[in-house]
Amino acid sequence: MRYLPLSAHDRAVMLDKIGVPDIDALFVDVPQGARRDGPVDLPKVAGEMEVEAQLNAFAAQNLSPSKAPFFVGAGAYRHHIPATVDHIIQRSEFLTSYTPYQPEIAQGTLQVLFEFQSQVARLTGMPVANASLYDGSTAAAEGVLMATRVTRRGKAVLSGGLHPHYRETVETLAHAVGIATEACAVAVDDEAEVLKHIDADTACVVVQTPNVFGTATDVTKIAEAAQAAGALLIVVVTEAMSLGLLKSPGEMGADVVAVEGQSIGVPLSFGGPYVGLFAAKEKYLRQMPGRLCGETVDADGERGFVLTLSTREQHLRRDKATSNICTNSGLCALAFSIHMSLLGETGLKRVAKLNYARAHKLKDQLADAGFAIVTPRFFNEFTVKLPVAATPVVEALAAKNILGGVPFARLQNEPGFENHLILAVTETVSDADMTALVAALKEIAQ
Question: Which of 85-99, 173-187, 244-258, 378-392 has the lowest mean pLDDT?
Fold first, then answer.
């Protein structure tokens, strides 16, 4: 009974205490069609060695990004992470530090988060940043909630270039609290479409740059139009490395910035955990979600760090808190900060320029091979419109040991976009990788 410490009698007492007849009654809110009608098709008993062997066999079916040409992006990017990052985060004083419920005791943790906030503020061009959120999509959703508190309006306009997963996250949370969302038509270049949707009822406009198709946009005009209508502009960035080269959201007039920080210090990890960066104008400081670390001096005049303006639900204000985010991605934020410190400003710019150059080299090769590039301007990610549906092409590329991008149809079933293939090129992509992809696409998709 090592993993099943409760007896049948124990379970019966618990069910009686909460007033339900059986365990199935705990799942009445799950639709019948989503429930299994029998046990999972797995052996009831297996030894540890047998389980390990089976799981290794399952893992061997995957094609690892480190073992093949890799052009997958669309919100998660493969960048080189120095071994130093992994070494430092495994030091016991970092690895064991978590939420500081008696925060001033954990000065090391607080100082790291303070430095992290400073880095995020510099990257985004914003005056204040918090100590991280779960990931980029929830940071975007928190930005929408914050905007409705600030403007006392109830509608969010979502750009047609916003990553579909981010849009769905925003819509889910907004629906739960009664905020209306208005999604613009899907567009590779989305500025004109967004401007049409801004009106006197708009609380915020959510735009992504570079957007899901890779299009990099100067959102200054959108910022001006939103703010003229009394709304906030929320700028979403899924590729943090782009902030090393492109104009910062703060320079373009953003009120709130929500970034996925995975590109810096955090591996792909099958989709998480990642780290959400959140920054805003100083006048919205008291409406920011999550925790904020501040600098102070102690009774002896020595520099110190504290949690400040921390009105989270599990602290004092509960249902009146600005956010129900219960934690920050502390270890991922630490990895981000370590990688940023190793790169420095010069190193970050150098890596960003390398990403830009390699992506444009692949674009030129594909254009020369006769493929239609639909992204007008981009950082390290762009979209190709194939003459055939993109999804089977990606499967055929995988069969040739090439991880050849993300079909937009895999993210959203949108008529007219079945042939759109999103390709990401980072500093980890070699010339040989590009040659292999172009040759395979010519064979498969032309």
Answer: 85-99
- Give me the residue label for tokens 């919100």: 75
Q: What's the confidence (pLDDT) of residue 98?
A: 62
Which is it for the CA torsion 279, 280, 283, 288, positive or negative? negative
Gap between the Cα atoms of 328 and 334, Å rounded: 11
Residue range 94-137, pLDDT digits in tens: 776 665 666 667 788 888 899 999 999 999 999 999 999 999 99
What separation in angstroms does the CA of 385 have from each of 199, 212, 322, 356? 33, 14, 43, 20
User: In CATH, which of 3.40.50.10610, 3.30.465.10, 3.10.129.10, 3.90.1150.10 is domain 65-81+345-445?
Assistant: 3.90.1150.10
- Rounded-to-integer distance, Cα 288 and Cα 147, Å: 10
Which pLDDT belongs to residue 325? 76
From 352, 337, 285, select the one nearest 119 (Cα to Cα): 337
For residue range 324-334, list pLDDT tens digits in order: 776 778 899 99
- Phi and psi dihedrals of 240, rounded to 5? -60, -30
Burial classification of residue 231, based on how many CB atoms lie within 10 Å of its CB (0-12 exposed, 13-18 middle, 19 or more buried): buried
The CATH classification number of 83-339 equals 3.40.640.10
pLDDT the model gives residue 219: 98
Query: So where are the chain's domains?
Result: 65-81+345-445, 83-339
Instruction: State how far the Cα of 225 lies from the Cα of 295, in Å rounded to an integer.
Output: 36
Distance CA 116, CA 132 (A): 8
**Chain centroid to CA 225:** 26
Q: Could you report the per-residue pLDDT of 261-293, keeping only the tens digit for each?
A: 999 999 999 889 999 999 999 999 999 998 889
Contact of 226 with 233, CB cutoff 8 Å = yes
- CA angle 81/62/84 to nearest 5° reads 15
* Helix ranges (DSSP H) in 152-301: 164-176, 191-197, 220-228
**What is the rounded average pLDDT of the residues 367-375?**
98
Q: What percent of the chain has pLDDT over 70?
A: 95
Please choose, from the candidates 210, 150, 397, the residue with its C-alpha nearest in 3D space to the C-alpha of residue 219: 210
